[in-house]
Amino acid sequence: MNSGKVIKNLAAYNTWANVQIIHWVQKGNPNLLTQKIPSSFSTLKSTFLHIWNAERYWLSFLEKKPLEKFMPDFEDNFESFFEGILKQSHNFETFVNSLSDHLLEEEYKIDTPWLKGKQPCYIFIQHTINHSTYHRGQLITMGRMLGLENPPNTDYSKFVINILKN
User: Fold this and answer.
1) Distance between terminal CA atoms of the chain?
2) I need a labelling partner for 27 at 20 to 30 A (CA). Which of 13, 61, 120, 123 fits?
3) What percent of the chain has pLDDT over 90?
4) pTM for the structure as a whole
Protein backbone atom coordinates (compact mmCIF):
# COMPACT_ATOMS: atom_id res chain seq x y z
CA MET A 1 0.00 0.00 0.00
CA ASN A 2 1.40 3.39 -0.90
CA SER A 3 1.67 6.25 1.56
CA GLY A 4 -0.99 8.27 -0.28
CA LYS A 5 -3.53 5.54 0.28
CA VAL A 6 -2.58 5.30 3.96
CA ILE A 7 -3.06 9.05 4.46
CA LYS A 8 -6.40 8.96 2.64
CA ASN A 9 -7.50 6.03 4.82
CA LEU A 10 -6.52 8.04 7.90
CA ALA A 11 -8.60 11.00 6.73
CA ALA A 12 -11.60 8.69 6.22
CA TYR A 13 -10.94 7.20 9.66
CA ASN A 14 -10.95 10.66 11.22
CA THR A 15 -14.38 11.43 9.79
CA TRP A 16 -15.73 8.01 10.80
CA ALA A 17 -14.37 8.34 14.35
CA ASN A 18 -15.88 11.82 14.75
CA VAL A 19 -19.24 10.41 13.64
CA GLN A 20 -18.96 7.61 16.21
CA ILE A 21 -18.17 9.97 19.09
CA ILE A 22 -20.90 12.41 18.13
CA HIS A 23 -23.53 9.66 17.86
CA TRP A 24 -22.47 8.36 21.28
CA VAL A 25 -22.69 11.78 22.94
CA GLN A 26 -26.05 12.46 21.28
CA LYS A 27 -27.52 9.47 23.14
CA GLY A 28 -27.06 11.37 26.41
CA ASN A 29 -28.79 14.37 27.86
CA PRO A 30 -27.86 17.52 25.89
CA ASN A 31 -27.13 19.27 29.21
CA LEU A 32 -24.07 17.04 29.57
CA LEU A 33 -22.40 18.99 26.76
CA THR A 34 -22.03 22.08 28.91
CA GLN A 35 -21.55 20.45 32.31
CA LYS A 36 -18.19 21.46 33.78
CA ILE A 37 -15.66 18.69 34.35
CA PRO A 38 -11.91 18.83 35.06
CA SER A 39 -10.04 18.19 31.81
CA SER A 40 -7.96 20.02 29.23
CA PHE A 41 -11.18 21.76 28.23
CA SER A 42 -13.90 22.21 30.81
CA THR A 43 -16.85 20.77 28.87
CA LEU A 44 -17.63 18.25 26.16
CA LYS A 45 -18.79 21.15 23.98
CA SER A 46 -15.50 23.05 24.37
CA THR A 47 -13.52 19.89 23.57
CA PHE A 48 -15.59 19.28 20.43
CA LEU A 49 -15.14 22.94 19.53
CA HIS A 50 -11.38 22.59 19.89
CA ILE A 51 -11.32 19.57 17.55
CA TRP A 52 -13.44 21.48 15.03
CA ASN A 53 -11.31 24.61 15.18
CA ALA A 54 -8.02 22.70 14.93
CA GLU A 55 -9.25 20.83 11.84
CA ARG A 56 -10.30 24.20 10.38
CA TYR A 57 -6.90 25.70 11.10
CA TRP A 58 -4.91 22.85 9.58
CA LEU A 59 -7.14 22.63 6.51
CA SER A 60 -6.69 26.34 5.80
CA PHE A 61 -2.93 25.92 6.30
CA LEU A 62 -2.80 22.96 3.91
CA GLU A 63 -4.98 24.69 1.34
CA LYS A 64 -2.73 27.76 1.67
CA LYS A 65 -5.76 29.93 2.38
CA PRO A 66 -6.29 32.50 5.11
CA LEU A 67 -8.13 31.20 8.15
CA GLU A 68 -11.65 32.57 8.15
CA LYS A 69 -13.08 34.04 11.31
CA PHE A 70 -14.66 31.33 13.46
CA MET A 71 -17.79 32.36 15.28
CA PRO A 72 -19.96 29.30 15.85
CA ASP A 73 -23.00 30.45 17.79
CA PHE A 74 -25.21 27.46 18.31
CA GLU A 75 -26.27 28.04 21.92
CA ASP A 76 -28.55 25.05 22.53
CA ASN A 77 -28.82 23.92 18.89
CA PHE A 78 -26.46 21.01 19.24
CA GLU A 79 -27.73 19.32 16.08
CA SER A 80 -26.33 22.20 14.01
CA PHE A 81 -23.20 22.23 16.18
CA PHE A 82 -22.52 18.57 15.45
CA GLU A 83 -23.37 19.02 11.77
CA GLY A 84 -20.71 21.75 11.60
CA ILE A 85 -18.07 19.49 13.12
CA LEU A 86 -18.89 16.67 10.72
CA LYS A 87 -18.94 19.03 7.74
CA GLN A 88 -15.46 20.20 8.73
CA SER A 89 -14.23 16.59 8.95
CA HIS A 90 -15.72 15.82 5.55
CA ASN A 91 -14.09 18.94 4.08
CA PHE A 92 -10.74 17.86 5.49
CA GLU A 93 -11.17 14.34 4.11
CA THR A 94 -12.25 15.66 0.69
CA PHE A 95 -9.17 17.86 0.52
CA VAL A 96 -6.86 14.98 1.46
CA ASN A 97 -8.50 12.75 -1.16
CA SER A 98 -7.89 15.42 -3.80
CA LEU A 99 -4.12 15.30 -3.31
CA SER A 100 -1.83 13.36 -5.58
CA ASP A 101 1.12 11.48 -4.12
CA HIS A 102 3.31 14.30 -5.41
CA LEU A 103 1.29 16.94 -3.54
CA LEU A 104 1.30 14.85 -0.37
CA GLU A 105 5.11 15.07 -0.46
CA GLU A 106 5.15 18.83 -1.11
CA GLU A 107 7.11 20.74 1.55
CA TYR A 108 5.20 23.14 3.75
CA LYS A 109 6.86 25.80 5.83
CA ILE A 110 5.24 26.73 9.10
CA ASP A 111 6.14 29.66 11.32
CA THR A 112 3.86 29.99 14.31
CA PRO A 113 4.56 30.74 17.97
CA TRP A 114 4.24 27.04 18.80
CA LEU A 115 5.76 25.42 15.72
CA LYS A 116 8.44 26.40 13.22
CA GLY A 117 9.96 24.35 10.44
CA LYS A 118 9.40 22.52 7.17
CA GLN A 119 7.67 19.19 6.63
CA PRO A 120 5.85 17.43 3.80
CA CYS A 121 2.10 17.97 3.54
CA TYR A 122 1.30 14.44 4.74
CA ILE A 123 3.03 15.13 8.09
CA PHE A 124 0.60 17.96 8.82
CA ILE A 125 -2.32 15.74 7.79
CA GLN A 126 -1.11 13.05 10.17
CA HIS A 127 -0.72 15.64 12.89
CA THR A 128 -4.28 16.89 12.42
CA ILE A 129 -5.73 13.39 12.61
CA ASN A 130 -3.57 12.47 15.60
CA HIS A 131 -4.66 15.67 17.36
CA SER A 132 -8.33 14.83 16.85
CA THR A 133 -7.74 11.26 18.03
CA TYR A 134 -6.13 12.55 21.22
CA HIS A 135 -9.10 14.77 22.01
CA ARG A 136 -11.66 12.08 21.11
CA GLY A 137 -10.01 10.02 23.84
CA GLN A 138 -10.60 12.89 26.23
CA LEU A 139 -14.24 13.07 25.12
CA ILE A 140 -14.70 9.40 25.97
CA THR A 141 -13.15 9.85 29.41
CA MET A 142 -15.19 12.97 30.08
CA GLY A 143 -18.38 11.33 28.80
CA ARG A 144 -17.88 8.34 31.06
CA MET A 145 -17.29 10.65 34.03
CA LEU A 146 -20.61 12.32 33.17
CA GLY A 147 -22.41 8.96 33.11
CA LEU A 148 -22.45 8.13 29.41
CA GLU A 149 -22.12 4.38 28.98
CA ASN A 150 -20.83 2.10 26.24
CA PRO A 151 -18.42 4.43 24.45
CA PRO A 152 -17.68 3.54 20.86
CA ASN A 153 -14.52 1.75 19.85
CA THR A 154 -12.88 4.29 17.56
CA ASP A 155 -9.58 2.46 17.18
CA TYR A 156 -8.03 2.77 13.74
CA SER A 157 -7.74 -1.04 13.57
CA LYS A 158 -11.54 -1.36 13.98
CA PHE A 159 -12.03 1.09 11.15
CA VAL A 160 -9.61 -0.73 8.84
CA ILE A 161 -10.80 -4.26 9.62
CA ASN A 162 -14.55 -3.75 10.08
CA ILE A 163 -15.40 -0.59 8.17
CA LEU A 164 -12.88 -0.01 5.40
CA LYS A 165 -12.92 -3.64 4.26
CA ASN A 166 -16.75 -3.70 3.95
Assistant:
1) 18
2) 13
3) 75
4) 0.92
